[in-house]
């Protein structure tokens, strides 16, 4: 599960305090897409706070009004499908070229950031032992063949329903949101994790070994869907904690008392 932070034109790049908080909460990599020379440029692969600030400093130097003059989409990754590596950081260009999808600096007509798990490409769900990035595969298999139809609102609703995910698409014309985003102080967030305190992380190189703490809503945040629930369940041979709905989607069964962790 990840966090997308979208910054519309006219809004400044978020404060260093918030940027650091989001990276600490979603520590498996950072990337950003921004409008650049009539197209979209993607800079990604930051695996530390220092590298994140270096990328955003570069963005400020390349953009109008230190970045405030362009639409921008940032993504903080918490790996669930695929390795923790710079190449799997979002956003991705909407292209069938694997070289471009893996590139840490690429110019494209459209960039995509993803929040969620696309079950068709999740090895835990499909039982296939592969190391892939679900968003990359979805782009190549579905979005590229769709062509311009992805800008149809009905098609976007189908994409949201099919993937159980949220997306932010950036072009030279602006930002398109698929799924419900939270607007606050001019920014748009894909889930409530932007508030911080989602969990205390142990091993920053993996989604495992996270110690979850109750949030102010009285619930605990699910690793997968980003929603809060009163009870969390543990999947066999895995330290991840998920809500009952995600448990059922991953295992095909209803969780029992033995699996309940909180």
Write a structural description.
Residues 198-218 have low confidence and may be disordered. This protein starts with a strand and ends in an 11-residue tail after the last helix. It has 262 residues and is α+β, with helices and mostly antiparallel strands. The chain is built from seven helices and 17 strands. Helix content is 25%, strand content 26%. It has two domains: 3-194, Glutamine Phosphoribosylpyrophosphate, subunit 1, domain 1; 197-259, no CATH class.
- Radius of gyration, in angstroms, nearest whole number: 18 Å
Largest sheet, in brief, is: 7 strands, antiparallel
Q: In total, how many domains does the architecture comprise? A: 2
State the low-pLDDT regions, or none.
198-218
CATH class of the largest domain: Alpha Beta
Give the CATH topology of the largest domain.
Answer: Glutamine Phosphoribosylpyrophosphate, subunit 1, domain 1
Number of strands: 17
Assign an overall shape: globular
Beta-strand portion reads 25-35%
Instruction: Round the mean pLDDT to the nearest integer and report it.
Output: 82
CATH architecture descriptor of the largest domain: 4-Layer Sandwich
The termini sit apart by 19 Å
Concise account of the structure shown:
The chain is of the alpha+beta class and 262 residues long. It has helices at residues 16-25, 49-62, 98-102, 123-126, 134-146, 153-163, 244-251, and strands spanning 3-7, 30-36, 39-46, 72-76, 92-93, 105-108, 111-115, 166-171, 174-178, 182-184, 187-189, 199-201, 210-212, 220-221, 228-229, 233-234, 241-242. The protein is globular, with a radius of gyration of 18 Å.
